[in-house]
């Protein structure tokens, strides 16, 4: 930061401002966390390494993980599971070098994937997870944000909010598997899901107030619905970060698990829940959202009830 401040003129001011922004964000993440390639980290390019953090054996300590930059087309992996898991779709975020932060490209890919899923009648449950150990999503990509022209920021935030709303409005159950860090927009993404499960070592919080901004992806509405208005205000005002046990205690997540050696305990629990949902239909989700049903659908359901049999679902 001192070096940045020493650069004369507007350039020095800009670099110093960026350094303060990154430092403030890292302070919200916790000790030892750094954004790759930032002014608070080593001067090594993100394509060479990424500072991920994964739980060591037992989940108590933390160790560094390294990975190379993913191709942009691999930053979101959409997997349609087969056999006994048929009907389950997994959206896997895969931006290790940027802690799965939400970039313009990732938001675009999420929007495209969600648009395809919402009209796919074979999909019964969707799991949102990370393909990167120790990280769920660290929020908006601040490195990309500071490079945006002022005219680009508003549309990007609007697009991000729209994608999160689209996930919340999906006609099938959605589960967020939080096996690591979920901050800012990352937690807002999880809040858009119907159910959240997390490892006890995960970290969650809406930390935007540390940057003198407010959550922009619907967190100010969805967090109060999950844990109550008063506590939600407290967490947002303080930018407090909770671990999995604390999040479970306040009702932010439904299940908390000790992390396993593979670092995917939350995902495995999400998969178990998804399998439980498979025999059901998206009727419950649609009723919850207050969506109007045509008379044919209602007649179909009432007929099964009248005949005292299990409905034969066709995914319609």
TrEMBL record:
<feature type="transmembrane region" description="Helical">
    <location>
        <begin position="286"/>
        <end position="305"/>
    </location>
</feature>
<keyword id="KW-0472">Membrane</keyword>
<protein>
    <submittedName>
        <fullName>AU RNA binding methylglutaconyl-CoA hydratase</fullName>
    </submittedName>
</protein>
<dbReference type="InterPro" id="IPR001753">
    <property type="entry name" value="Enoyl-CoA_hydra/iso"/>
</dbReference>
<dbReference type="Pfam" id="PF00378">
    <property type="entry name" value="ECH_1"/>
</dbReference>
<comment type="similarity">
    <text>Belongs to the enoyl-CoA hydratase/isomerase family.</text>
</comment>
<keyword id="KW-0812">Transmembrane</keyword>
<dbReference type="InterPro" id="IPR018376">
    <property type="entry name" value="Enoyl-CoA_hyd/isom_CS"/>
</dbReference>
<dbReference type="GO" id="GO:0003824">
    <property type="term" value="F:catalytic activity"/>
</dbReference>
<dbReference type="InterPro" id="IPR029045">
    <property type="entry name" value="ClpP/crotonase-like_dom_sf"/>
</dbReference>
<keyword id="KW-1133">Transmembrane helix</keyword>
